[in-house]
Give the backbone structure.
Amino acid sequence: MYKKYIPLAFLILAVFALMRWGFLRGNEAPRENTEKLQVAASFYPLYFFAQEIGGDRAEVFTVTPAGAEPHEYEPTAWDISRIYGSDFLVVNGNGLEPWLQNIQKNLSAGKTKIIIVGEGLAVRSFSEEEVIDPHVWLSPRLASEMAEKIKEEFIAQNPEHVAVYEANAEILNGKLGALDEEYSTKLSECSQKSIVTAHAAFGYLAVEYGLAQVAVTGISPDIEPSQQELAKIVDFARQYDIRYIFFETLVSPKLAEVLAREVGAKTLVLNPLEGLTLEEIRAGKDYFTEMKTNLNNLKIALECK
Ligand SMILES: [Zn+2]
């Protein structure tokens, strides 16, 4: 008669074992268990770069989950406990992570180091508002500098595997260099220079390749335009003969569609890489596939040779 209780007993034991494992990982001595560095990254591109550099020597977790964008994301208690359990936390900085200040205060006594990889790279301010534009990862050249800072932290934390991190970072930087070349070449002969984007994420990319960005919403997708601002964009689109209005995958395309109808344009995706959806991840998409799709869509919109 005790037989039927045996699976239940095992289940309870297993749950306790898992809880204890999770507890240990969240506090001390994760190294003995896994030998992998525990890395937290605030959002997708930093997660991707850390994963590429850490390879199988790292377990990387992204604070902003799939399908969400980082500007307004509030970490859950679970996210925060995972951050505390990490060896280091990689953030963009420059206002992209509204929760960073709180975490910084609470982490000062803890063991998790914070690496702000966008610091010193974000030099543009957004329009007249004097708000720093945080979107540096969309310039492959600046992304490469971010990757360098992530690599340095891996080496500092785990110097015995310096060769692995150097080799992985070299592959990543090679790909970023090739992407930069491809953008420069393919955007060099276009009849249009202006892009109308959903939110103002493409400032660094625009500067890098000689484009001009006009954004429908502000520096964050949540800052909606006034009627007056919308009217200005419509005027701009008509004056510069804009044929395509860009929209993003993580925010509603409604505003872009309304604008496109108003000026007789079509819509196309320009992905700010602030996060991938679960479907995109399952379909094998990553920073490079999306940056290449962005380039193809830019070539269409800008009528490049
Ligand atoms: Zn953004």
